[in-house]
Amino acid sequence: xxxxxxxxxxxxxxxxQSMTLLCAQDMNHEYMYWYRxxxxxxxxxxxxxxxxxxxxxxxxxDGYNVSRLKKQNFLLGLESAAPSQTSVYFCASSPYRxxxxxxxxxxxxxxxxxxxxxx
Amino acid sequence: xxxxxxxxxxxxxxxxxxxxxRCNYSSSVSVYLFWYVQYPNQGLQLLLKYLSGSTLVKGIxxxxxxxxxxxxxxxxxxxxxHISDTAEYFCAVKEVAGxxxxxxxxxxxxxxxx
Lengths: 119, 114
Description:
Chain A has one helix at 97-104; strands at 4-7, 10-13, 19-25, 31-38, 42-51, 54-57, 65-67, 73-78, 87-94, 109-110, 114-118. Chain A is mainly beta. Chain B has no helices and 12 strands. The interface between A and B is medium-sized, with 25 and 23 residues.
């Protein structure tokens, strides 16, 4: 049981390049999230998904797109990278409340992060 | 909308001393409260959470937190810290009846001094 995994762990891009970050979870969770972490800013939600085929905007969605074609995967795309997108990106997942019960619900499980630098 | 304030960005403490990391939240509705820990170069790990019931919540690694509704606080405490507790700690809040979004504080870096 690997939990939440993220690919790649590190990446350096030039301004204007595109890339996709992959998040995978093997816990059969319904909900998945993408966050960015910047020094002194905590974690800020970029996009999230409440199920396969659905996505929604979070606090800081501009410049990012996401897709959830399979329940276990959540992709984060940068179409034209900018230096302001230099950050550490974390993916998380959480179970469906009605099946996990209150004790298990609302807890998010995080991946190890992807460190992205845009030059 | 809810918000979280972690009152100290950095907390240095000597090994085996007690520590309190402070967290205040703002919300007009009932909330769930969480503390996550992030060790260097790792993802976040749940330390403890308050959903309902007893206001004193015990978590992993000897940490505990107390929910105080009147003061809208959820401070994290440990009676005796170890070097291995050096990490960044995040307080987070989620509306009980809201979406599944967590709102995080900006974090408190705990440095344990030998």
